[in-house]
Structures are given as structure tokens and as C-alpha cells.
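agent> step 3/5: call structure_predict on target 'Cobalamin biosynthesis protein' (Mycobacteroides immunogenum).
agent> reason: downstream docking stage needs a structural representation; sequence fetched in step 2, passing through unchanged.
tool.input:
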Amino acid sequence: MTIEAATSDVEVIAAGAAESGVCEYENEPVPPHARRGVLTVAAVWLGFPMILTCAVFGGLIVYSLGFWRGMLAIALGNAVLSGYVGALSYLAGKTGKNFALNAIGTFGGRGYRVVSGFLATVVIGWFAFQTGLTGSVLAGSAGWDARWTALAAGIGYVAVTLVGIRALSVIGLIAAPLYLLLGVTAIALALRNSTVLEAFGYRGGAGAAAMSMGAAVTLVVACFIDSGTMTADFTRWSRNGWQGFWSSFAAFPLANCVAMVIGGMIVALGAASSPATDGGNFLGALIDTGGWLVPVSIAFVFVNLGSVCAHCLYNGAVGWSQLTGHTMRLLAVLLGAVGVLLAVLGVWSQFEQWLTLLGVVVPPIGTVLILDQLVLPRFGIAMRDAGIRWESFGAWAAGAASALATHLWAPQLSDALVGMAAAALIYIAARRAVRRRGVTV
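tool.output (status=ok):
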């Protein structure tokens, strides 16, 4: 079978899925008549970070730093995400453009392809990680076969993504309340053998292996920095800039903080079975209790991790659809197949290296975009048209290099924050230099 024939077959599948869906406006701004209210767009973001993975990371942070320092790291990381994602969401609501279309103005008519292609590919790795985690969690908690579970779950997650933005809103409204119900239930079960005061006094158990405050903040930021940078794919549906901003507020700090704090409480109450590796994963405690919690917990895994998988695949599909000219649904099928294969092969086990990559490379991208399109124009420094805007790429490279150097030689600091600061300083200096040379704006 030729590549053209295979692509044609997949297009038929994707077209069938699109018949009852809505236009996704992959290659143009969302028109005013298709925009949605703030609650609808907020629902898309709400169920995204309120996931079991964030409970794991919240538990790891508290295990390393103790309860109160852990809560401080979670708060600081979410404050960074709130400002970062909120600014990009404001831009998305103002323009109606997805991330790729907005990136054209900052990185150039040809240069944006590098940035958009990179992020749209990176986010598929996150889809693969969460799909593989579905199999791993149910293998450890319910004794299921990890690979077959990941395969079946991945196919289901692709099917949800094919419905489009409407499905992301619905699954978010289901995933968030279900997480709250089971998270609070897990804490109530843990309080049978501990007290809240004992949790407040928890000093951590990592000892010499504990992460620094800076590393903990980076972990919070890195957890959602990829889709957070591509937030325009979701919040472009908002009616205006401020509605886009408030829609993202549902995720950062609200949903993400709740998810991480619950995981931290599970560890601080002594209810986590393996806090050094599984953090605040509370699924095992629920299943061990038996009764109605067993089927509900299993359903929770699919809905909860399915939410983040569908969102990530949507990000990747929208990004690559704009680059290739094909529809979002076609790319969802193709990229989803790649992600499911990676999940079955076990790529999800490399999550530490993956988060390091995200924390080092991604934050400078959004920083440059925010400065270029929201901050500098207010001071009369307008964008300039170019095929490749080298000052933007230079700032991105400088920020990533600074973050990597911090990771290697100054682990007490936050890679993500150092990268953002370096990218901002270099970009401002570069734009001033370009302006002095009299380059046409």
C-alpha cells in the first residue's frame, strides 16, 4: 500500500468522525459566531490538570520538602503557570488564533514551523506517557496486563479526541468532580490512622535524596508547560482576551493546586504505599478498601488520564494540521497511533528525563511570545515581519542554555524560572538593538 493510499484511508476515518462534529478552525482564527462562553472554555481546562499524575508529583514534592515547604513549592509553581498561561490565553482570546498562528508573528512566516512542530511533537510524548501510565497504574493496583490495557486505553483516547473541542469540555466536567470525590475519599480513609495535625508536622522522608525548592518549583511548572504554552489551541474559542485569561485560571492555579495538594496530603498522612517513587498516588488505597470503590476507581483511571491524553493529542493534532494543511482529525489518528505505540513499548517509564526536557526547553518559547505580542507593543516596539526572526530564536536558545546550565550546576535554583528570565533579557536587548539599527518595523 502506498503512503498516499494509506493517508486516504485515514482521511476517510477522520472524516466520518467529523460528520457530527464542529469545524475546528485549524488554519484560521475562530470567527466571532463560533466563540464560546467563559464557563465552556474553562471546562476544557478544568479537567486537564486535575489528574492522578499531579497527585503523584504533589506527593513527591511533599516527600522531599516536608508538608509546608512542599505546599510553598506547589503555590510558587502554580503562580508562575498562572501568569504564563494566563497571558498566552489572553492573547488567544484576543486574536482567536491557535498557537501555531500566533507563533508566526513572533518567530516568522517560516521560522514558526520549527517552534510549532517541536511543541506539537513534544506533547505527543506526554500523550504516550499518560497512556502508558494508564496501563502501569492498573497493572499495579488491579493486576491487569499493562501493555494490553495501554493499547485499549490509547484507542479510546484517540476516539474521544476525534470528536473535537466539545469532547474536551465534557470530559473535563466529568473528570474534575470524579477526582475530587475520590481524592477526598482517600484522605478520609487516611485520617483513620493519622490526623491533620500530624500531616502539618510532616518533615519529609527523602533525606539526602530530597530535591531542592528550585527543583520542586520546576517540577510543578514542567508538568504542564508544554500544553500551557499551547493554551491558545483551547482558549482561542473565548469571546475576548479577558475571558481567555479567566478560562485558564480554572486550571492554574485552581485545578492544578487542588490535584497536587491532595497528593501531598496523602503522603503527609502516611497513606502512600511508595512515596519515593509513586508520590501521592492514592488509587491503591481505594482499591484495597474494596466494595464500590473498586469499579469506580478503575473507571476513574480511564476518565482521569483520558482527559489529559485527549487534550495533549488535540494540541499535537491542531499544531501539525496547521503545518501540513490536513485536518485536525486526520492528524489525531496518525499521531495517536504513534503515541499508543510508544506507550506500549514503555516510553512512559522515562518521565524524569521528559520533565527535565520540558522544564529546560519550553518555558523560553512562551516568554518570548508574551513579550513580543503583549508587552513590547505597549512601549511602542512593534513586531516586524520576517521569514525567520532570528532575535526570537536567539532568545529561545539563550533561555534554554541558561536553564540547562542551571540544571547541571545550580540545582538549588529553578531551571524554568532561570530560562524564562534569561530569554526575556536577551530578547529585550535584541529588540532594542534591532530598533537602533533602524530595521523597518
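agent> step 4/5: record observation. The chain is about 75% helix and 0% strand.
agent> proceeding.
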